[in-house]
Amino acid sequence: xxxxxxxxxxxxxxxxxxxxxxxxxxxxxxxxxxxxxxxxxxxxxxxxxxxxxxxxxxxxxxxxxxxxxxxxxxxxxxxxxxxxxxx
Length: 87
Fold this sequence. Notes:
mainly alpha
């Protein structure tokens, strides 16, 4: 390939870290509580990858929704390995 630059692979749907944490807790049926901490000064305000290069160069589009992807990951790896057996 003549391309020597990064290509973002991700979900262009933006969601907050709080929303992500809530989905992880829901899908894993965890009893964990979310703890709010001060954000680092260099924390990105937007977490939405630009996947235009992936579309253009690779013809790639995300096909799996977040909840479904987490469920598939848990089934493959086992929830105990991902969140800890003592949770």
